[in-house]
């Protein structure tokens, strides 16, 4: 697969009209591993820096949804012409391990999330499929319009999974970089479910944190960390041990 960094333009649950209540960034690697962070615009406008929740099973209210997982391309069925994919979440802010204790090896408890991708005349991509609608708790048809960000063919791609934390703290985390964009998600840290988003500034090339919540502020940046591309399986970073999912 080609590495991708995408922002969402709009979403709708037919027959409702398209709108965009969230600030969404998704990055995915050549391996198909992805990180997806969706930030509630209204919650951000109400409270730019809310006090961290004391209940570790709850995510920061600005995080409307955040997942880490794998994207699988599906074979086309008769009559279909647009690529199809299935998304399987291994980490999900809507079912945090601190409250429901899902096994990272058990993917059967996640709701189906499948869609097809149709290129539009302006270069955007229309995704149509089925996924869980949070307002109803039911699986429903959806449409999302995505805008691909410029990722160079030789862009640096790194995804890491937390293996061990200092003091044996029980937490799960993923950090990833695709070109000029980074995301990190953590579940079970001091601040409950947390996230961080970083981007390289176009004007001076410096990396800037554009969003952080909860224990996401503790997640390391991959901007200046060179993960070997020689098949290394584990690395030490910021006092933690990480499994290399992808380094390409």
TrEMBL record:
Name this polypeptide is given: Protein HRI1
Acidic residues: bias regions: 105-116
Organism: Rhodotorula graminis (strain WP1)
Disordered: region residues: 43-123
Listed Basic and acidic residues bias regions: 69-84
InterPro entries documented for this protein: Hri1 (IPR031818), Hri1_N_sf (IPR043047)
Superkingdom, natural source: Eukaryota
């Amino acid at each position: 697969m080609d590495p991708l960094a995408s922002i969402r333009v709009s979403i709708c649950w037919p027959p409702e009209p398209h709108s965009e209540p969230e600030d969404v960034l998704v990055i995915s690697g050549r391996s198909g591993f992805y990180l997806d962070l969706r930030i509630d615009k209204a919650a951000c406008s109400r409270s730019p820096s809310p006090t961290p929740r004391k209940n570790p099973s709850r995510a920061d209210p600005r995080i409307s949804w955040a997942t880490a997982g794998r994207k699988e391309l599906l074979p086309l069925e008769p009559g279909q012409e647009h690529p199809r994919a299935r998304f399987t979440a291994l980490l999900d802010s809507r079912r945090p391990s601190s409250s429901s204790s899902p096994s990272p090896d058990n993917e059967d408890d996640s709701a189906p999330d499948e869609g097809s991708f149709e290129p539009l005349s302006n270069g955007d991509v229309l995704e149509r499929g089925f996924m869980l609608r949070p307002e109803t708790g039911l699986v429903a048809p959806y449409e999302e319009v995505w805008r691909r960000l410029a990722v160079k063919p030789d862009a640096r791609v790194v995804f890491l999974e937390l293996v061990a934390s200092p003091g044996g703290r029980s937490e799960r985390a993923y950090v990833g970089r695709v070109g000029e964009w980074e995301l990190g998600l953590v579940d079970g840290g001091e601040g409950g479910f947390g996230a961080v988003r970083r981007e390289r500034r176009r004007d001076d090339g410096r990396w800037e944190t554009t969003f952080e919540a909860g224990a996401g502020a503790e997640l390391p940046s991959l901007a200046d960390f060179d993960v070997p591309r020689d098949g290394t399986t584990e690395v030490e970073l910021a006092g933690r041990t990480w499994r290399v999912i992808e380094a390409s």
